[in-house]
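I hope you will forgive my troubling you with a question about protein structure. The matter concerns a single protein, recorded as an amino acid sequence and a row of C-alpha cells. Please examine both parts with care and let me know of anything in them that strikes you as inconsistent. Thank you for your consideration; the sequence and its C-alpha cells are set out here:
***
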Amino acid sequence: MTLQGPRVNGPRVQGPRLLLLLLWLPLLSGQLRYAVEEERPRGAVVGDVAADLGLDPGLLASRGARLTSGSGRRFLALDVARGLLVVAERLDREALCEPSPSSSSPCLLGLELVLERPVEVHALEVELRDLNDHPPRFPRPEYRLEVSESALPGARFPIEGARDPDLGANTVRGYRLRPSQPFGLDLRDFEQRGGSSSNSALLELVLLQPLDREQAAQLHLELTAFDGGHPPRSAVAQIFVRVLDTNDNAPAFERGTYAATLLENAIPGTLVARVNASDADEGANGEIEYSFSSYTPPEVRRLFNVDPVSGEVTVNGTLDYEEASSYEIYVQATDRGPVPMAGHCKVLVTVLDANDNAPEVALTSLYSPVSEDAPPGTVVALISVTDRDSGPNGQVTLSISSELPFRLNAFKNSYTLVTQQPLDRERTSSYNITITATDAGVPPLSSHKMVLVDISDLNDNPPRFEEPTYSVYLPENNVPGVALCTAKATDPDANENALISYSLLNGEIQGLPVAAFVSIKSDTGDLYAVRSFDYEKLREFQVVVQAQDSGVPPLSSTATVHIYVVDQNDHAPQILYPTSGNASVAVEMIPRSAHAGYLVTKIIAIDADSGQNAWLFFHLAHASAPGFFSIEVHSGEVRTIRKLGEDSATTFNLTIVVRDNGEPALSSSVSIYVAVVDRISQIIPNTRRHIRSSRSYSEITLYLIVALSSVSFIFLLTVVVLAVIKCHKDNLHGKTYCGGFCGTPRERYPVEMYKQSNDHLDATMPPGLNAQPHFVEVRGNGSLSKTYCYKACLTAGSGSDSFMFYNTGIPAGIHPGAVLPERHLTGQSGQSSQNLIVFKSEPITPNEPKPPNPDWRYSASLRAGMQGAVHMDEAGALRVGPGPEQQWPTVSSATTEPEAGEVSPPVGAGVNSNSWTFKYGPGNSKQPGPESKKQTQVSFLLR
C-alpha cells in the first residue's frame, strides 16, 4: 500500500476528470492505493482505510462513511465498524480490466470515500494483481494443414497460438511440438510483426526436412502450450498435416498486419481495410481468393465481411464500444492451384466511442424529511452520475430549477443537493425536484431523476390514545406475564416527535404500588399481568397509562385501563353440614314409621366462587340399598322415597356428591350413616368409629343403640310435655306471650285472601275474642340463610291451621326502628314441615310473656350440628356462615338468668340439625334480650 497525492498522470485519469479533481483538491486529504490479488474471498481485508487516513473507526458510521465508484456494481465495500476496506464480490481481473497492449499496465479500480459532517472525499485506487487462474487455451482443439511436397525446408506455416488472459509470468511462456521432425516451431515475437504482446505471438510451423508424399501423405503432430505459473498450466492442440503435390508458391500479403479505426456507430457496409496478396505462380495457381481464416472467431464473422475478390473488409453488423473496443480479423489468401496454397494476415480494428449513451443518475443518499428550521447549506441528498461513453461524451453536468430553494454542489461525478433558502413547511410541505443530467457530446444526451423531499414539522402534537378508557376482563388464576391489552396511542408528528414511550402513573392498589400488579412495555403499550389474580381477593382495579413522545419538550396524554378479574371455578364446594372426617361419618336417624317424603337431613354447602361457578347441585352417588332415599338437586334435602317396612334394613350408607356449575365442574362428597330406629330417642352411635354395613353389627351393638335412643327420646318427650303443661297453666291464669291475638279460632281464611298480593293481605280477629296463646316451634332450613327470632302462639285447643307469628329479633346492625322486609320462612310444628307465607308486617306493642323453663342446655347433638356451619362466640353471638350476626343467649346466661329464655336443638330422627327452636321469655336487665327490640307483628298462613 502506498499513500500519495492525487494521481494526475496515471493511465485512467483523463483531462475533464483531471479538471474536476483539481477543483476539489482542497477537500482531498490524499490518495490511497492498495493492491489485492484477484479471486480473494468475500470479506477479505484489502486495507485499513481508517488507520491510513487517521480516522476514528467509531465515527465512520455517524459520519455516514460510504464508498462510491463509477461502475454500477460494487466489488469492494467499507466495513464501517472497523474502518476496513473488504472484498464485497468476486474479483476477476480478466473480467474487470480490458486487455492492455502492454502486460506491465496495472489493473486499477477507482473508488471515492465520502464522509459527512463535515464533507470529506478521499480517492482510493485498488490494483488487482493477477493470479494464474486461467490455463492457456487454443482457439480450436485441432488444426488441419495442407503442405505441398515441393515445399522447401524453412517453409513456414502460421498457426494461431494459445491465449492466456493472465499477465506476466502467468501468461503463455512456451510451446512443445511432438514429434520434432519433420516440422519444428518458430515463435516470433508479435512486436516484430506489428504486435506488442507475447501473449498474442504468431506461432509458425517450420519445415525442417523435405517432404515426400510417397513416404508420408499425412502427418500428425501434438502441440503443447504452457504458462509460467507455479504450478504451470498447459493446453494441447492436435495438428494434422496433409502433404500436397506441385503448387509450391503460396500467396503473400504486402503486410502481415493491417490497422483500421472505426466509429461505433458505423453503418453496415463501411470499409474497414483493403488487404492485398500476390502469388508468383502462373495460371490457376496464381489466382487468389480472400476469406476469413479458419480460426477467426464467430463474433468477428458476424460483425465483418471479406470480399473474396477485392480483399475489402467491411462492416456487416452493429458495433458497440461499450462491449468491445477492438477486434482482430484473420484473413487468408488462397490460390486456385491443384493444391491450393494460402497466405495469412491480420487486421486490427480499433472502435472509437460515439455519444450513444445517456447519463445515468443515481440517488446515493436522501435525507428526508428536512426540518423546516434547517439553515441554508444543509445537505439534503447525495447524487452520483455515470455515462458509459468516454471522453467528452462521458462528461456530465447536473442542473435543477432555479425557482427551488435548493442548489447543487459538484465534486467529480458526485453532487450534493443542499438548501439555499429558509424553508417554510406551512407554505410547501414537500418538493418534487427534477434533476437533469446532460453530457458534453454532440449532440448532447440527457436524462432526468425525480427526488421527493419532505419538510418535517416541530413537536406540536401530543400523543392521543385510540380510546380514553380501556376495559380488560382477565380470568383469575392467570399466569404471571399474560398480556392484558394494548393501550395504543398515535402522534401525527414524525421521527422522534412521534416516537412514543408508555409508562404507568404512580398509584396504589390495596396498599401496594401499581407496578406490583401490572407492567407495560414502553415501546408498544402492551400491558402484562405481573402476578396471578384471585377473584375472591381482588375483583377489579384501574391503572393510568401515560403516553409521552420524544420531542423537545416532550408532550404526553393519559388513558385509564379498567381491569376486571373474572371468576373461575377454582374452589370445590365445601360441605358445612353434615361433616365427616377420615375416620368418621355423619350419622342421621329416622323412625321406622317414616312415611314417603320424610326429611332425613339437609346438606349444607358453600362455594367460594361466584356466579354459576357457585351454583350447587346435589346428587346421591351411592346408596347401600337403592330405592329408599332421594335428594333434591337444588336444596340438598334428603328424603325417603317410600315408607320403610318391617323387613327393611336397619342401617343405610349414603354418599352425597355436591357439584358446582363450573367448567369443568368441581365436587365434594360426604358419607352419611342413616340408622332406622323404632323410637326417636335411640342413642346416636359413635361417629368416630368406622361405619360398616348393617350386617356387620352385632345384635348387642344394635340393642345398645336402640336403648340409648329410647332413653333420649323419653327424656326429650318429658321435657316437651312439661313445657306444654306449664304454658297451658299460664294461659288459664290469663297470661299471654303475645301482644294481641294469635289467630282465628277454627275458621279458615276465605279463598279470596290467598289470591291477593302479600303486600295487601292482613289477618284480623273479631272483636272480643279472648285467645289463649301457645308456643310452637319455628325452624329455618335455608342454607346459610339469615337467622331471626320469632314467637308463635295459637288459641288453646284450636284445630285451625292459621296462627300468628311474631318477629322478636332483627339482624345485627339494624336499628330497632328500621322497617324490615317481608320474608318467606319455613315453620315446623312437631315433626311436620309447613310453609309460612308472609302477609303483611306492622309494628305492635310488645307484651311480657311468661318465662319458659330455664333448665335448658346445649346437648351433644346440638354441638355436632353447629360444627362448621354455626358457632357461638364469647359475646353470645350465633354466627351462621358469612351471614349477619345474631345475638342469642349463651349457655352461661341461660344457667344464671332463668328469665332469659330457651334454645332447643332439633332432636329425634328425621329432624334437620340445622333447624332450631327459639323460645324467649322477658328480657334480662343484665343481658339485653329480644324484648328490648321493637317487635313486629307478622301474619302467616300455615298450609
Observations:
- The longest helix spans residues 699-732.
